[in-house]
Specification:
- The chain is α+β, with helices and mostly antiparallel strands.
- The protein has one domain: Histidine kinase-like ATPase, C-terminal domain (Heat Shock Protein 90).
- Helices cover 30% and strands 34% of the residues.
- It is built from 3 helices and 5 strands, in the order H-E-H-E-E-H-E-E.
- Strands 1-2-3-5-4 form a 5-stranded mixed β-sheet, with helices on one face.
- It starts with a helix and ends with a strand.
Length: 125
């Protein structure tokens, strides 16, 4: 579903959107809560890429860690808003309901005008 969404957004952004996937094939076997990745990608486009006249990059990564899957969405942009939007708050709450304190979702600035959302999802419920 995320790939289809990004294909539609690529039409809207034209050459202003560059997408890269770095997915460990083993990570494809791990269940991700519904709409979690979609929320992170939409957030990257709405609060990052759409605000930049030149556009930017979105990199989606998934890899297995001991006992968990690391899911990251990195985009060109900056964290300017003092509080994350409702989409990220809802995603954090869904992770808390599903996994208690064993899951996490963090948003942070990186050097070079990058923002990264990182979710750690336990491999067992």
């Amino acid at each position: 579903m995320v790939a289809d969404y990004l294909a539609l957004e690529a039409v809207r952004f034209e050459d202003r959107l560059h997408v890269e996937f770095a997915i460990d094939p083993a990570a494809n076997q791990i269940a991700v809560p519904p709409m979690l990745l979609q929320t992170l990608v939409e957030n990257a486009l709405k609060h990052g890429i759409a605000k930049l006249p030149a556009g930017g990059d979105v990199v989606i990564r998934a890899s297995l860690q001991p006992g968990a899957m690391l899911l990251q969405v990195e985009n060109t942009g900056q964290l300017n808003e003092p509080k994350p939007g409702i989409g990220l708050d809802n995603a954090r709450e869904r992770l808390r309901i599903l996994y208690g304190g064993r899951a996490s979702l963090h948003l942070e600035s990186r050097a070079g005008g990058r923002v990264i959302a990182t979710a750690m999802i336990p491999r067992t419920a």
